[in-house]
Amino acid sequence: MNIPEELRYTKTHEWLRIEGNKGYVGITDFAQHHLGDLVFVELPETDAEVAAGDVLCSIESVKTASDIYSPVSGKVVEVNEDLEDDAGLLNEDPYANWIAVLELSDPSEADNLMDAAAYREHCEKEEEAMG
Amino acid sequence: MSSYLPNTEADRRKMLEALGVSSVEDLFEDIPKEVRQKGVGGLPGPLSEDELVRHLTALSERNCHLGQCVCFLGAGIYDHFVPSVVDAVVSRGEFYTAYTPYQPEISQGTLTAAFEYQSMICELTGMYVTNASMYDGASALAEAAFMACGVTKRDKVLAAKTVHPEYREVIRTYTRFRDVTVEEVGYKDGVLDLEDLASKLDDSVAAVLVQSPNFLGVIEDVKTLAEMAHDKGAMLVVSADPISLALLEPPGKLGADIVTGEGQALGNPASFGGPHFGFLAATKKLLRKMPGRIVGQTTDLEGRRGFVLTLQAREQHIRREKATSNICTNQALCALMGAVYMASMGKEGLKDVAKLCYDKAHYTMERLLERGFERAFGGPFFKEFTLRAPEPVETLNARLLREGFLGGYDLSRDYPEIENGWLVAVTERRTRREIDRFAEMAGGEKK
Amino acid sequence: MKKPVKLLNELSKPGRRACSLPASDVPEASEKIPEKFARKEDAALPEVSEVDLIRHFTRLSQLNYAVDVGFYPLGSCTMKYNPKVNERLSRLPGFLNLHPYQHKDLAQGALELMYGLKEMLCEITGMDELTLQPAAGAHGEMTGLMVIKAALEHRGEKKRTKIIVPDSAHGTNPASATMAGFEVLVVTSDERGNVDVENLKSLMSDEVAGIMLTNPNTLGLFEERILEIAKIIHDAGGLLYYDGANLNANLGIARPGDMGFDVVHLNLHKTFSTPHGGGGPGSGPIGVKEELAPFLPKPVIVKEGNSYRFDYDRPLSIGKVRSFYGNFNVMVRAYAYIMTMGSEGLRRVAEDAVLNANYLLERVRENFVLPFDRRCKHEFVISGSRQKKENGVTTLDMVKRLIDYGFHPPTVYFPLVVPEAMMVEPNETESIEELDAFSEALNAIAEEARKDPELVKNSPKTTPVTRLDEVTAAKRPVVTWITEEE
Known about the structure:
The complex is a heterotrimer of chains A (131), B (447) and C (486). Chain A is 23% helix and 34% strand. Chain A is α+β, with helices and mostly antiparallel strands and 131 residues long. Chain C is built from 17 helices and 12 strands.
């Protein structure tokens, strides 16, 4: 399972990459693997204000619909429109294909997120629980 | 015991033995004693097949059916001709005793037919997508209102007073518990009052709901209504008579965002109001906001064409409380009847039906105008029209009934402002003789 | 029969038709459709001959599995035999060709039938009043919840906005709750597969409007503590809603009304033998206790002396949930079914349904994981988790293999609380021989999963199409033959 060192992670399997006052948000390799072939991403609207833990958008596979939660608070400034045409990009490379870019309202919130090591441990626990 | 229960006493004993219990009662031990019954009390029956047939035949004969009278009554349910092929197809056990096609490998019949149904409904309405059916025209319109609210993130809809009164009532019930406001827009000369609409249409409105031809029979100006709605960021939802769409420009080509309607006219008998089917069709943009089941085309592992239920992540069995609707069971077999009907009529036949309705309705109106009736509204109509009768409709219809005619719909309850308002429907089944006699009985001497 | 099916548009040829219409006997209307309203381009409906049409749809029908073809053990769907006499009766012209707005005096037979059905269903469920208006089970759920909301609002309890739904519930339950403007609280299941009563107690508050329960629940298990649950809900000022999907197990055995339920919906297309029609039409009447009767949709059928009429004067009614009176022709079939069975027959239906399910479970239990090892009611849930873990064969693989053995798969991956779930409902219209054959097939597949997993994973092999690409279907939807051409 691919868990890049430089990213921060949520318990609900989103990742965050910070560049200046902007945060790139996507789903992890663990998430895409367990969801299976993704068929649709309902992208958030630009200019939408979200708080950390709010539903940012939803993604669908054939037999599931899952909410994606925002790792941090901020305003949506950009969405990845490539995903509109092919949600499968998230399966192909979940880290290169971010979902949305947020303008962070409080960059220190990122400190509440897990680092790669902590996230790896979290995933292992979940795998175990799933049997 | 009934022929629907195959297990014999010996079979039951064998099964109980296999379970190691002495009586079937033992299988119900986990039900609290306080609620356990010894059977249903007081039901009639059991009847043998012959007794049952006699009993129900006798009941059915206490009704007067459309084969025993001449029907000029419409108001949402119409006496159209249903070709024999329709019942021949839906009487096949392989269609009517199948479940929802969740296992596509052994449901290609239902799935393919539903795909064809969807294609033909989209051809008729001029829309991109439709689902595999809704309960009826009224609930389809209510669901369309919710779709519009969801997409526009607004919580008010405007419903034309020229929409079927029962449909408006259903919309009121559906919306009442979800904090969606419904405001009605009045009418002028039988069509939606554009000034009233303009005064009520603002950026809090999710959708304008209209019917065309409307309940009073008149064709609405869908294009203008669509432009007005879109100007304020609202959607236009049109409830349409599918037969009329053979002659009238489809709402999809005039800017409607969602087209709904009652499908009964497409090969479904009147059936005392149901079952029939509702249809709901929409633009490409709304594809993933649709309620209900949708069939899509795909291929199997060996590259063969096949059909599946698709976009299921919208639906209740996956999205639960966040689903686009709670609809599960729809009106599949009735939609199949619609599909067989549309294919049976075909491109030319449906136009012929529509043309016959149009000409006969206009002929009927002319005959009635000669006998003391007044045309209530000047606008163009299709197969149904509103007249002012020279007498209360109740007495008029009672007199007609004695002559074997089901007269038009009495508008006095829903539209008391139209004095002695009478809504007359004429389908392709009415003959000139029937129409002439009807006019004569309705109006007496020619004036 | 292996040649590919052509679609109607592919069969179409200009000039062909499959209908015969009368020549017009009236003059062409002088009033023309105004140009701006007239259709510019014809609707491209197919042009086929009647022979083509019938062969096409007959061919399609042969691609379907159906109750008339074989055993259909879909859990929670009650795919019982659909009696042929009921089909014949539903087509009597005096039922089929009635206009909903014809005068009541011309429809007394229809009204008497509806009234009689209502009375019988009240008796069967232990309720006081009933509406036949809802068109399907989910429609009934929505209607019942609206009635609850209206009644609570009438009591002055507007803040009761939450409805409790078990984690094992049908997806329609939470979806219907949303339709009726409720917020959903989920109650968990305990180790016996019942509602976890302690968890339920912790959810109670003065914001709770009630609970929706299926009993027997979707695991096929009777909620043993139903009376305690009813007391908890009622003491807290809430109401109980009964999802009638599984009523088949209770006929003549235990009435929802006696268990403490205030509202119940029925699925005439499950319990009362009306056909599923490939997905509909159904009929979802709801019965209620006295207190809730004024809130039912209108009109209500009333009997006065020996005649019947619709009563629209119902000031507290929630209004209407569909046009007219419901799926009348479905009601005719259900009425005929109840009259055929009578009191004793219905009791026997439940007994045989429950006996069949327990017998079948006994025959397959060794090969599968039983999440709850109890006596079941009319259906049971087993899990394919052992096969998945040990052989890499999923429940989906195994049920697809069942198709090769000539059976319809059971309901799978539901309820959500059981991994790799298979939910099997062999109803009372199946014989012991059919159950034996099915159990042998299922056991053989468990064996194949061990010895030849690839065989199972590559099934079905005997169908006109094999597994379909649902991912592409959802990614790039082709939903009409028009989209295909684009």
